[in-house]
């Protein structure tokens, strides 16, 4: 897939913008700019205010969050398997998919009661605020995550993060 994308870019693009050094090295083109993805001031302000408020509360730590597409290489089936093996924890998957795809996933995989799945959301703050741990379970042998925006967002909320040792994520 990357070879096809690289060829199409070479033939059609005047300029290419990459979100990470890793992508720029992986897809070789003549003219390029690297624009690192950042969080908005609004996102930082909301997460900081929440962290200050959360310090005052004494909450149990049992909510595990994953924000991902429903692609198998993103590790969603691993996340589902963890929910089955750890019924004492709450697993929340915010899928970058529409409602129909989510319903199909539920019908196909019959998740346990401690596994909640949501379709694509425009506001992720409530999910990060309710989470105690953020996971990114992308399977590196199938797909290398080039830039972990959800990881950056989780860090803004002070969440511990479990992620694969993929090149793009190691540069954060």
Any chance you could write out the topology, listing elements then pairs?
Blueprint: H1 2-12, E1 16-18, H2 21-26, E2 32-34, H3 41-54, E3 63-68, H4 76-85, E4 90-95, H5 99-109, E5 115-118, H6 125-130, E6 133-135, H7 149-156, E7 161-162, H8 167-170
Parallel strand pairs: 1-2, 3-4, 3-6, 4-5, 6-7
Task: Considering the chains and any ligands shown, give keywords for the structure.
five-stranded parallel β-sheet, two-stranded parallel sheet, 8 helices, alpha/beta, 41% helix, 172 residues
The whole-angstrom Rg is: 18 Å
First-to-last CA distance: 25 Å
The number of strands is 7
Helix coverage percent: 40-55%
CATH architecture heading of the largest domain: 3-Layer(aba) Sandwich
Query: On the 0-100 scale, what is the average pLDDT?
Result: 82
How many domains make up the 3D coordinates?
A: 2
Strand content: 15-25%
CATH homolog superfamily of the largest domain: Glycogen Phosphorylase B
The CATH topology name of the largest domain reads Rossmann fold
Helix tally equals 8
- Biggest sheet strand order reads 5-4-3-6-7
Uncertain parts: none
Taken from the alpha-carbon principal axes, the silhouette is globular
How are helices and strands ordered from N to C?
Answer: HEHEHEHEHEHEHEH
CATH class type of the largest domain = Alpha Beta
The helix-and-strand class reads: alpha/beta
How would a textbook summarize the main sheet? Answer: 5 strands, parallel
């Amino acid at each position: 897939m990357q070879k096809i994308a690289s060829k199409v870019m070479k033939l059609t693009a005047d300029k290419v913008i990459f979100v990470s050094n890793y992508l720029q090295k992986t897809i070789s083109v003549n003219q390029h700019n690297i624009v690192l993805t950042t969080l908005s001031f609004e996102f930082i302000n909301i997460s900081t205010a929440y962290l200050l408020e959360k310090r005052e509360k004494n909450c149990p730590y049992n909510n595990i969050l994953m924000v991902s597409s429903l692609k198998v290489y993103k590790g969603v089936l691993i996340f589902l398997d963890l929910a089955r093996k750890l019924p004492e924890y709450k697993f929340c998957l915010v899928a970058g998919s529409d409602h129909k795809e989510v319903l199909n996933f539920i019908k196909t995989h019959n998740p346990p009661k401690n596994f909640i799945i949501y379709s694509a959301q425009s506001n992720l703050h409530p999910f990060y605020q309710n989470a105690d741990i953020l996971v990114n379970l992308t399977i590196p042998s199938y797909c290398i995550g080039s830039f972990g925006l959800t990881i950056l967002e989780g860090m803004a909320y002070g969440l511990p993060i479990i992620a694969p040792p993929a090149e793009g994520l190691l540069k954060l």
